[in-house]
Amino acid sequence: MEILQLTVSGLANGCIYGLIALGFVLIYKATEQVNFAQGDMMMLGAFLAVGLGNADWLGMPFLVACAGAVAGMAAVGWSMERLVLRRIFGQSQVTVVILTIALGFVLRFVAGLVWGHEPLSLENPLAGSNARFAGLVLGLDEVAVIVVTLLLTGLLFVFFNRSRLGIAMQASSQNQLAAYYMGIPVRRIHGLTWALAGAIAAIAGILFATKGSIDPSAGLLGIKAFAAAVIGGFGSLPGALLGGLLVGLSEPFAARFIAAGYSQIIPYALLIVVLLLRPQGLFSQVMGKKV
Amino acid sequence: MSSGALLEVRNLESYYGPVMALRGVSLDVPEGSVVTVLGANGAGKTTLLRTISGVLDPEKGSVALAGEAIAGVDPDVIVTRGVVHVPEGREVFPLLSVASNLRLGAYTRSDDAIEDDLGLVLGYFPVLKERLAQPAGTLSGGEQQMLVIGRALMARPRIMLLDEPSLGLSPRLVSAILATVRRLNREQGVSMLLVEQNARQALDIADYGYVLELGRVVLDGPADRLRQSADIREFYLGGQAAGGRGERRWKRRKTWR
Ligand SMILES: Nc1ncnc2c1ncn2[C@@H]1O[C@H](COP(=O)(O)OP(=O)(O)O)[C@@H](O)[C@H]1O
Ligand SMILES: [Mg+2]
């Protein structure tokens, strides 16, 4: 039964890595920019929920605080594209990487200024309660993380495959030039993609903060999520989620069956193995243009 | 200087950085006609279409659609005005289904005739009907060319800008595709500005033609007259000069220079 507990806690962490990885891939597919502030956006989203919901702060009802944090981070993502990234569009990947790392520092600084550097946890209705299931004790918060991630994945799937905007987002990420020629407003779509990545980051942050606590450096988790995105094949949304789950699962098992410290390096060991054996990632999609 | 044509291009100059790719191009596409622009590689044909569709801003000159200036307007706005550009190289959305590709052609529309128009497009390109659920990246080159023309038709344009639809296709496929372009023009009333290197086949379906060289129009006239023109025959149709062709190219000067 221990295996099952390890699995649930690994999956719960993996969901969070997966959601951050999803943000990386979303933005990369739409704009070919790698946003190294994605982890810090997750962190800020968590703090926004704390600021709106915790009793010491604004004390709004939990769900209202969550909705506010998601909307707030969508606005932050949209503004980052509009005010910064759009201006350097077309510049080298290195410029984008340095700039987004710098933006991440800014977000960390702002969070530290407003919420301080002590770890805070997000007050929520599930905190501390356990689910007993066939003689097994599971943290309700961990179960909730998995359920919310599943729901969000389903929602995103429907959005990308059924809605006009979702299909246009896919189209402009597959062939920006053609999208442009068909009258799809590509720039607005870039902005909306950053907004969506911000909203997903906020959800990841809320889930992260319900499970544990949040401090301004929590965004460094983004590096693990980046590894997860690469493992999944940087161009694939399902790949990002699965990569996240794989990394999440690897950690508790490595700690349990190898030695405690190994959970720290197993994600990167996985990354190296995948890059050596299958450099395009595990779940990459191939595109073809016939001549 | 208005000629009353649907599309009027006047003294258009476009640059890529310091490179001047269009050096004062003027042309007309009268409503309901097929006009072709011929020219060798690098003549500026693609640049001309990009400037008309708003992907590239001109340095000087004007583009008017039905008398209204559109030079420098954003491409998505130009599409809603009725100009749709089918770029060279069959730019499909490779992972999306053929059906999604076609529906995306109607992205700027909000009327309820979109599904009817899908049927209309499939009527012109029946091969696409069997492939509706297939990712567009898996189609053959000819099918992809039909798809991008069909997708452009879904925008219900007044004028279509076609950039070398024959590139890399077999002569039989080229005839079939150009014949469909002509049918779309006659039956759907879509005016066509057709850019081609394949002069013979383009002139067969066009009403009027222009020859572009190094960013300038060097010759223009009704298609049947251009077909007879000695220069066109020699330099673009590879006609009479067969045999010692390479040599004669050097000796004979083009009369339009
Ligand atoms: N993106 C670009 N950057 C710089 N120069 C370009 C670019 N595209 C085309 N050119 C130059 O502009 C001229 C016209 O090119 P183009 O319009 O593509 O010709 P065509 O379509 O007739 O082959 C050529 O000299 C070409 O080298
Ligand atoms: Mg060209």
Task: Tell me the layout of helices and strands.
The complex is a heterodimer of chains A (291) and B (257).
Chain A: H1 2-31, H2 38-53, H3 62-83, H4 93-115, E1 130-133, E2 136-139, H5 140-162, H6 164-174, H7 176-181, H8 186-211, H9 221-232, H10 237-257, H11 266-277
Antiparallel strand pairs in A: 1-2
Chain B: E1 7-16, E2 19-29, E3 34-38, H1 45-53, E4 60-65, E5 68-69, H2 75-81, E6 83-86, H3 98-104, H4 114-124, H5 141-153, E7 159-163, H6 171-188, E8 191-196, H7 199-205, E9 208-213, E10 216-222, H8 223-228, H9 230-235, H10 245-251
Parallel strand pairs in B: 3-8, 3-9, 6-7, 7-8
Antiparallel strand pairs in B: 1-2, 1-4, 4-5, 9-10
Helix pairs in contact in B: 3-5, 5-6
What do you see in this structure?
The complex is a heterodimer of chains A (291) and B (257). Chain A contains 11 helices and 2 strands. Chain A has 291 residues and is an all-alpha fold. By secondary structure, chain B is of the alpha/beta class. In chain B, strands 6-7-8-3-9-10 form a 6-stranded mixed β-sheet, sandwiched between helices. Chain B has a 4-stranded antiparallel β-sheet with strand order 2-1-4-5, covered by helices on one side. Chains A and B meet through α6 and α7 of A and α2, β6, α3 and α5 of B. Magnesium ion binds next to α1 of chain B.
